Amino acid sequence: AGFRNPPHSAGVNCFWWWLNGNVTKEAITRDLEEMKDKGFNGALIFDADGSGQQGNRRMPDGNCILNLEDFAVIAATWLDGPKFEELAVMAEKWLTNYSLSTSLADDGRYNELFSALTALKDHITGTTPLDASQIEAHKLTIDANSELVGDNGVIIDACFNLVETYDTEIGPLWVTGSPIQSFTRSSTTNDIHWAVYNVMQYIMDSAYTKQNILSYKDLFDGFKFGSSADFPGAVEPPADPEATHTVTINASFLKTFGRDTMGWLS
User: Fold this and answer.
1) How far apart are CA 144 and CA 131, in angstroms?
2) Which of 144, 159, 168, 261 has the most CB atoms around its CB within 10 Å?
């Protein structure tokens, strides 16, 4: 009897692939209806991108990055389109209605990076204070995934939020009145100050690309490091933004034999 009329739990389970965050309510509805019609038992929601394999063009970023613990936090960072929190809750509810079980798959390094950036921000605001070892662990996670900083708007926004929170709550690096007036590169540490300093460097290295500025214009417009008040310094906007000026400079640098200028530590 069980073979002729198998229980629902005997149905097939599948990977439910949401390709790089590209998902809509209509697509979820269609997939769920097809799963029910074909006797599926459940699905593993898996948000990742494999389109770039074998030299194929990468799938553009969609509206979400999966993070099992921080749906609400991630939803608050998205710019446009449907929010993944809403879609995930809707999918869970509909799966129940369709008598399907579900689980969610983590998106790996992006989630680790996002979680580390968010944890440091929450430490600065006092929402979730961290001890020195926890701060160090999050900094090392960010360092290990630094090449991902410019990969999508969610990560870029999280980096911007961390720097802006630091500037507001602690004080911009090197600016008069702030606790950190200088750094010595020969004695780096893994505290919150060096963590934010590194994030600022990764933003400069990876986030500021032509494509990112075009794709995430609203993110970049108006963003600046608070430390820019010290270097290169603040100036008033020009009266005529179309005006151009030409100046001749001497950009030579005296030879310093015996000194590794690029690795200058003092």
Assistant:
1) 20
2) 159
